[in-house]
Design brief:
The protein has 226 residues and is α/β, with parallel strands linked by helices. The chain contains eight helices and nine strands. The structure holds 5-O-phosphono-D-xylulose and fe (ii) ion. Fe (ii) ion (FE2) is lined by residues 16, 39, 41, 72, 181, 201. It catalyses: D-ribulose 5-phosphate = D-xylulose 5-phosphate.
Length: 226
């Protein structure tokens, strides 16, 4: 089904493993086996205060699940550490625009490793910052909360930012995946998808529910109805 402006209606869903129960991780992975991607938040204790998931964990998840992995690097200077993530089974590797020194080189390396390359924007970074980079990347991750923590409320103006990102892509004649991350729930999935988001990350909205398959299904449905 297509929207009035020619986009595919609906969106993919990526449960964020940050919200999963570490004490029962295998069972948690099984519970989200029908997701489109699994979102893995890498946090270095510098770019964001917490420390979470490293390349070793990405490899363990890849070995335990058939679902493709979407790795979100919240690290200072990804130029220094991206190689270890490119050396995993991850399907998508995304660095933060604010943290990168040679963004184009990161994209090139990611492609050479056979992966999709994503760039993430903090809430305070405008999409226009990506005017050059957009023609090379496969994905733009619009942070809809300040990075570092799960379970936060969505930042005001996020819908509008997704719409501006989508417009800029159209203007440049490119069509990367637009991913939204932070505070995504069934009550905002529709407006985010209608604004152009095609990949929804959801941590608490999935792992906070007993029935994860139903949570994923309801997010997809909400995105489609948006
Ligand atoms: O990157 C991050 C946080 O920095 C996210 O991926 C969160 O893990 C999303 O969790 P919810 O806001 O959906 O609970
Ligand atoms: Fe994330």
């Amino acid at each position: 089904m297509e929207t009035a402006d020619g986009r595919q209606a609906g969106a993919m869903v990526a449960p964020s493993l940050l919200a999963a129960d570490r004490m029962h991780f295998g069972r948690e992975l099984e519970s989200v086996a029908d997701a489109d991607y699994l979102h893995v938040d890498v946090m270095d204790g510098h770019f964001v205060p917490p420390i979470a998931f490293g390349a070793i964990d990405v490899r363990s998840v890849a070995a335990a699940s058939q679902v493709p992995l979407d790795v979100h690097l919240m690290v200072d200077n990804p130029d220094e550490c991206i190689d270890q993530y490119l050396d995993t089974e991850a399907r998508i590797v995304t660095f933060h625009w604010e943290a990168a020194t040679h963004a184009h080189r990161l994209v090139e390396k990611t492609h050479q490793a056979g992966k999709l390359s994503g760039v993430a924007l903090n809430p305070a970074t405008p999409p226009e910052a990506l005017r050059e980079l957009l023609r090379w990347v496969d994905l733009v991750l619009v942070m809809t909360v300040d990075p570092g923590y799960g379970g936060q409320g969505i930042v005001e103006g996020s819908r509008d930012k997704v719409a501006r990102t989508s417009r800029l892509c159209r203007e440049l004649g490119v069509s990367p995946i637009i991913e939204v991350d932070g505070g995504v729930k069934t009550d905002n999935a529709g407006t985010l998808a209608a604004a152009g988001a095609s990949l929804l990350v959801a941590g608490s909205a999935v792992f906070g529910r007993e029935d994860r398959a139903a949570a994923i299904h309801e997010l997809r449905l909400a995105a489609q109805e948006g």
